[in-house]
Structure formats: structure tokens, C-alpha cells
Design brief:
There is one protein chain. By secondary structure, the chain is mainly α. 49% of the residues lie in helices and 0% in strands.
């Protein structure tokens, strides 16, 4: 509640004082004050779950993307894009695209400056309703930033902070959505959950390379990873969401 109070300059997630106790008892929280800041909204929501067992631990909260620096956030988006291309997995791609309308809209090119879009079609085609293609643009522009025309650099801003803000301001859901979706696959990279769900996951499976994502997820409790996957599962979907048992099958 304190985090929400600070970030919203005085608002309470359970409403005005006269209604607060009733709202707490009936789990009627209102986090709309952070609709513009989905990364923070996800953390606050995890902190105030009605069931104490479902609340994020302090150790997991410390590793939340809200506390990543700009370089780490940008690196994560690039790693997600590279992983999607590398795996060539139907299930991974389907999961990434299942909430595309919610995350990037139906025509994300309309949110991008013309100077940035100019040379997009030179080397490949992009689908402007695709999460994966939006991530690919971020990845490609980041890797070829020095080669961009001055006008495009000016629009995108300096690396990494200005560049990251450019895309986060246009697609505020992209980071936390990608984080939750990849958490599902990172979890499936392990043979079994620990006896204590609050313990960190161990024993990586062979034949599935998710080492790149250790820096983002290593040390998180299995419970936290499960909750991230479930949050994404409950979002409105235009496609389907596979059962946990088949997540790893497409990656072996």
C-alpha cells in the first residue's frame, strides 16, 4: 500500500478511508492509478494479494523489473526477441502473440516515428500487430543504432535510457508482459518444483538452453514464477494458452 501511495501521490489501493476496511475484506482493490505504469502495477498487485501465501516475498520483490536499470531492461527485451527467433517454437510464439492486441495494439507502426520506420522493410517484413515483430524492431534498432540516420537517432533518444523510454512510452505493457510470458518457459526448463514453493528453482533440464535468462529469473521462488505465468493466463486472449505440461515439449 505504501508503494502505491508514493507512486500515485497519496492514493490508496483500497479506496477512501470510509470504504477501505470493507474493500480490504472483500478484496476490492483499485490500481487504476498505475494504469500508465504496468511494471509497478504488477508489483503492487503481487504485494497486496488477499491470500498471504500468494503475496510476493521481499526477496522476490527485490528482483522485480521495477528495480532493473535501463540497460538490464533493454537487454531483456533483446534477449526475448533473440530467444523467440532461436527457438522457432510454435508454442512460444503463440504465447507471445496471444495478448498482442492488449500489448502492442493492431497497428503498432502508427506509434513509431516515420524516421524510425523508413528502413524497416529493407531486410525483412514486419507484421504491425505482432508482439514478436515489435520486439524485433527494438532489437534491430538497438544493435544498429550507430548506423541509423541522425533524424532517427534524435527521435529514439540516447542509449540506453532515451531509447528505452521511447518504446516504453508507446508500449508500456511490453516489458512486464514479456517478463511474465518468458517466466512460464523458464519455469518449464526445470524438472520439478521444489518441495517448498518459496524456495528457488534448481536442477535445470538438459537439451533446453535458457541460461541467458538466469540473470533475470535465477533466485526467484517457484511460487513467484507460477504466479507470473498465471497472471498472464488470465489476461483476455485472442488465441489459446497451452497447458503447463506441453510448454517444454516444443523446446526439446
Amino acid at each position: 500500500c505504501i508503494v502505491y501511495y508514493v507512486l500515485t501521490r497519496g492514493k490508496h489501493p483500497f479506496g477512501p478511508e470510509m470504504e477501505r476496511e470493507y474493500n480490504i475484506l472483500h478484496d476490492r482493490k483499485d490500481l487504476s492509478g498505475l494504469d500508465h505504469f504496468p511494471v509497478a502495477k504488477e508489483l503492487v498487485n503481487a504485494m497486496i494479494s488477499k491470500n498471504p501465501k500468494d503475496r510476493i516475498t521481499a526477496a522476490d520483490a527485490e528482483r522485480h523489473p521495477l528495480f532493473w536499470d535501463d540497460h538490464m531492461s533493454l537487454s531483456f527485451l533483446q534477449d526475448v526477441s533473440d530467444r523467440v527467433v532461436k527457438s522457432n517454437s510454435f508454442i512460444l510464439c503463440s504465447m507471445m502473440e496471444s495478448k498482442a492486441k492488449h500489448v502492442v495494439g493492431e497497428a503498432w507502426d502508427e506509434k513509431i516515428d516515420e524516421s524510425v520506420l523508413t528502413d524497416l522493410g529493407k531486410y525483412r517484413k514486419y507484421k504491425f500487430s505482432s508482439v514478436c515483430d515489435c520486439l524485433r524492431v527494438i532489437r534491430n534498432k538497438k544493435n544498429h543504432y550507430l548506423e541509423l540516420p541522425d533524424k532517427a537517432k534524435s527521435a529514439l533518444g540516447s542509449m540506453p535510457s532515451g531509447f528505452l523510454r521511447y518504446f516504453q512510452s508507446r508500449f508500456p505493457e511490453l516489458l512486464i508482459y514479456s517478463y511474465a510470458t518468458m517466466a512460464s518457459f523458464y519455469t518449464s526448463n526445470y524438472l520439478e518444483k521444489p518441495k517448498d514453493s518459496k524456495s528457488s528453482i534448481k536442477s535445470p533440464k538438459k537439451n533446453i538452453d535458457f541460461g541467458t535468462f538466469d540473470r533475470y529469473y535465477s533466485g526467484l521462488s517457484f511460487k513467484r514464477l507460477e504466479n507470473l505465468a498465471e497472471q498472464n493466463r488470465m489476461l483476455p486472449s485472442r488465441g489459446w494458452w497451452p497447458k503447463q505440461q506441453v510448454w517444454a515439449l516444443s523446446l526439446t
